[in-house]
């Protein structure tokens, strides 16, 4: 499509160039005609001036003729008083004057005809001037057309470059997005079974609750506790103003806890006891809402608790995503004072921990195992032997045998 578009543009450009050449030739031809007509106009203008001078002279002669005719009338009145000889002389003089007047009248008629011809020529010159103005307008319109064609060509070239750049950017973004999706999927598949992801999203209090009405509570934060995990890493990094009038405050605090390392063995066992329900919280993960005093010398105070049932997570195999759980007061009444929104992604990890320690407990109790458990144990033992075999051939750089 791009090649066809460029081909059409080139054809249109060649057509416009041909039209421009034809118009340019026509303009040159018209300019030559205009110059010739201007030259003739100047010559005719000079002739017209001469004729105008002659016409003025004829008018003067005509005026003189009228005066002489008046004088002739006066002379006719005196003819009776003249003698015959004088009358003949006067008649001859009058005939001469008549012939002179006739010749003058003929000259005057000829000058009038020439003047009328010059007037027609002047009208033709006016048409030439109008044609010259039209030609100037055509030239200006042609120049504007050429300028618009150049602008259109530049815009087409710019659009072509932008389309090429956009196609390249889209291709790069598509490749990057696909790589990101593949990488995320691989990381998710590899590490999802070896980690816990706990996210504290938001907190709200009921308007009539004791915490909302307590004037001593100004700022609150949320925490939870897991064995072997530093306390500072499982609490929201900052305390926020206590929500009032049913509003909701957002923490958006996320903590990822890996449970596949050797250091995490106590945590794995603790999680197993939670899944068995033998821990003090009866298989529930406890979240604590803490009031932070405005005075640093005073101590923090627990104002509410929220519980998330990990046994339900193990049984259903579904993670808790943006789960709304009740917050109960920290006093003996344990009234519901608000809502805590959390997400816990731990289904695969807890299932693996439970299966691992459940087999260990069965082995210690001497209970019979089914064929599936035997095959899994053989596979694990084979993997451990392979790992030990590899470790036997590794050499420590800091050892004395290196």
UniProtKB/TrEMBL annotation:
Region (Disordered) location: 362-402
Signal peptide location: none
Any single GO BP term: retinal rod cell development
Highest taxon listed in the record's lineage: Eukaryota
Matches recorded under Gene3D superfamilies: C2 domain
One Pfam family recorded for the sequence: RPGR1_C
Bias type Acidic residues, positions: 393-402
Protein name: RPGR interacting protein 1
């Amino acid at each position: 499509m791009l090649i066809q578009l460029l081909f059409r543009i080139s054809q249109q450009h060649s057509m416009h160039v041909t039209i421009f050449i034809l118009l340019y030739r026509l303009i040159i031809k018209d300019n030559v005609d205009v110059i010739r007509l201007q030259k003739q106009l100047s010559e005719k203008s000079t002739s017209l001036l001469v004729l105008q001078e002659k016409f003025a002279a004829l008018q003067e002669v005509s005026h003189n003729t009228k005066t002489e005719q008046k004088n002739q009338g006066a002379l006719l009145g005196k003819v009776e008083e003249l003698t015959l000889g004088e009358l003949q002389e006067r008649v001859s003089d009058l005939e001469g004057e008549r012939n002179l007047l006739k010749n003058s009248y003929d000259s005057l008629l000829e000058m009038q005809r020439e003047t009328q011809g010059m007037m027609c020529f002047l009208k033709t010159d006016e048409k030439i001037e109008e044609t010259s103005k039209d030609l100037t307008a055509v030239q200006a319109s042609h120049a504007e057309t050429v300028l618009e064609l150049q602008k259109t060509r530049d815009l087409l070239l710019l659009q072509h470059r932008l389309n090429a750049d956009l196609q390249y950017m889209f291709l790069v973004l598509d490749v990057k997005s696909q790589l990101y999706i593949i990488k995320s999927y691989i990381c998710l598949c590899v590490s999802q079974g070896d980690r816990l992801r706990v996210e504290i999203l938001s907190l709200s209090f009921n308007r009539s609750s004791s915490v909302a009405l307590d004037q001593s509570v100004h700022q609150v934060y949320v925490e939870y506790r897991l064995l072997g995990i530093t306390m500072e890493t499982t609490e929201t990094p900052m305390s926020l103003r206590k929500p009032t009038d049913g509003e909701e405050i957002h923490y958006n605090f996320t903590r990822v806890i890996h449970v596949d390392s050797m250091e995490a063995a106590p945590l794995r066992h603790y999680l197993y006891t939670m899944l068995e329900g033998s821990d003090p919280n009866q298989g529930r993960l406890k979240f604590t809402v803490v009031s932070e005093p405005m005075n640093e010398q005073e101590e923090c105070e627990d104002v509410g608790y929220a519980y998330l049932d990990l046994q339900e997570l193990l049984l259903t195999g579904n993670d808790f995503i943006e789960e709304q759980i009740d917050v109960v007061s920290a006093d003996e009444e344990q009234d519901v004072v608000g809502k805590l929104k959390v997400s816990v992604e731990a289904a695969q990890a807890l299932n693996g921990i439970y299966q691992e320690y459940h087999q260990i407990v069965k082995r210690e109790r001497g209970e019979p195992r089914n064929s599936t458990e035997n095959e899994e144990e053989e596979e694990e033992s084979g993997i451990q032997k392979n790992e030990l075999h590899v470790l036997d051939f590794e050499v420590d750089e800091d050892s004395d045998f290196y």
